Amino acid sequence: MTKWNAITLYDNDERTYYRETLSWRNGIQHLIEVLREFGDDETYKQSKLLDKEYRRVKKLTKKEMERLLSLTDNCYLDYKLH
After folding, report:
1. d(CA 8, CA 20)
2. CB–CB of 7/22 below 8 Å?
3. Between 24-38 and 62-69, two packed helices, what is the crossing angle to 10 degrees?
4. Alpha-carbon dihedral sign for residues 35, 49, 64, 74
5. Pairwise CA distance, residues 54 & 52, whole Å
6. pLDDT tens-digit profile of 16-35?
7. % of the chain residues with pLDDT over 90
8. Are 81 and 7 contacting, i.e. CB atoms less than 8 angstroms apart?
9. Mutual orientation of helices 62-69 and 41-56 as an angle, nearest 10°?
10. Residue 19: which residues within 8 A CB-CB, separation 6 or more?
11. Backbone dihedral angles phi then psi of residue 38, each to the nearest 5 degrees
12. Is the pLDDT of residue 1 over 60?
């Protein structure tokens, strides 16, 4: 069995139920898209910073994922790393 590093993203809105499990790379890319699409000016700035920092990462480790995720306030999606 191969080890798959995954992130599960959860919607913070109680009226809708959204849950998706993605690879770490796809999860970060999806989070960037969500922040850009649904956010305000501050959230858009966070998405730009997250995108810039993500592009600089050579090897995506758990520590690096936690650092990247800490760059946003995650007001739209909660997450769980696997």
Report:
1. 5
2. yes
3. 10
4. negative
5. 6
6. 777 889 999 999 999 899 88
7. 41
8. yes
9. 160
10. 8, 9, 10, 11
11. -110, 0
12. no
